[in-house]
Each structure stands twice: as C-alpha cells, then as structure tokens.
Amino acid sequence: MDLNRILREGFIAGCIGAATVAVWFLIIDSINGHPFFTPAMLGSAVFWGASGTGSVVMEPARIFGYTMIHVSAFVVVGCIAAALAAEVEYAPSTLFLVVVGFCFFEVGFYILVALLAKPLLGYLAWWNVAIGNGLAALAMGYYLWREHPRIGEELRRHPLGETEDGE
Questions:
Q1: Which residues of 38-50 are buried (b: 16+ CB within 10 A; e: fewer)?
Q2: Please, are residues 154 and 92 in contact by the beta-carbon 8 Å criterion?
Q3: If you placed Cys at 20, which of 2, 11, 91, 139 could pair as Cys (CB 3.0 to 4.6 Å)?
Q4: CA distances (Å), 15 to each of 3, 22, 58, 64, 72, in order?
Q5: Is residue 42 in a domain?
Q6: Which residues, in sequence order, are CB contacts of 97 under 8 Å at separation 6+?
Q7: Distance in angstroms (rounded) separating the CA atoms of residues 68 and 76
Q8: Is 54 domain-assigned?
Q9: Residue 61 domain-assigned?
Q10: pLDDT (tens digit per residue) in 2-25
Q11: 109 to each of 6, 8, 73, how far by Cα in Å?
C-alpha cells in the first residue's frame, strides 16, 4: 500500500464527509431558524462545558473550534477508510469485514454521542445524526469507490467474494 496515496485519499474523503455533515446540519439549523446552532452547541459543550441548549453562545470561536475537531475526526476516519479501500482492492473478500466494521463503528458512535452529549440530545435528534452520518458515508464511499475501480471489477467478477477455486 502506498502511504502517500492513502493519506491523500483519506484527507480528501474526510473533508468530503465533514463537509457533507456540516451542510446537512446547516440545512437543519436553517430550517429551525438558527443557522450554525449545532456547531455552536457542540463547541459550547466541548470547550465551555455547556450542559443544555440554554447555555449555548453563538460566537465564531466556538463554531470554528468545534469545526476543527469535526474535520480532524473525519480526516482520521477518512484515512482509515482509504487504507481499508486499498486493502479491499487487493483482497476483495475483506469487503465483508469492512462493512461489518462500519456497522460496529456507527453503533459505537451513537453510544459515544449518547454518553457525552446526553443533556444536548434533546436538540440533536438521533435521526439527524444518523442521516448526516449516512450521507457522509455515502459521499466518502462514492469518492473511494471511484478512486479504487478494481474493487468494482472484482465484485462484478466474484459478487459473493468466492475465489477462482470456488471457495
């Protein structure tokens, strides 16, 4: 595996995922009449220990600070996804493990959000988070799918992951 390629693809995929979630919550916040409320709320919770939506302060430092954490986390996830895509390209049967791992990651993420942001979850509906993460996963997956065309070729040749020996 080429480390430079993985890091480049991971950075791009992470930025795509972060932007997708950010745009999703900007749309949701704008519909609710409070653009940028979600990053301000999460920034207030992370940096200033806000325990409810009443203590959220809409200021650029909180929005930008949380956005940097958000982008950084997505770049890390993007790099992991790029490394897994490179592995699946060479060993297509590992795609099943990647899908199962993704499911465990998502469930773990929801548990983490529930534990860390319990007072704020009244505003941050679980379905908003699920849709945002789903959109980000689709966008990142589409980018990585296009960067690794051999995965699609292998799946067309061996849709169930069987080998040339029929295993």
A1: bbbbbbbbeeeeb
A2: yes
A3: 139
A4: 18, 10, 24, 15, 9
A5: yes
A6: none
A7: 12
A8: yes
A9: yes
A10: 899 999 999 999 999 999 999 999
A11: 23, 24, 12
Place of tokens 């990142």: 140
* 26 band by pLDDT with thresholds 50, 70 and 90: very high
Tokens 């990651």 found at: 105
Task: Report the pLDDT value the prediction gives residue 136, as an integer from 0 to 100.
Answer: 94
pLDDT, mean of residues 138-163: 81
Domain limits for position 24: 3-157
Task: Label residues 68-86 b or e (16+ Cβ within 10 Å = b).
Answer: eebbeebbebbbbbbbbbb
In this predicted model, what pLDDT tens digit does every residue of 87-137 receive, in sequence order?
988 887 788 888 888 888 888 877 777 676 666 656 667 778 888 989 999
Domain tally, the chain: 1
Looking at the whole model, is its pTM more than 0.70? yes
Cα–Cα distance for residue pair 49/62, rounded to 1 Å: 12
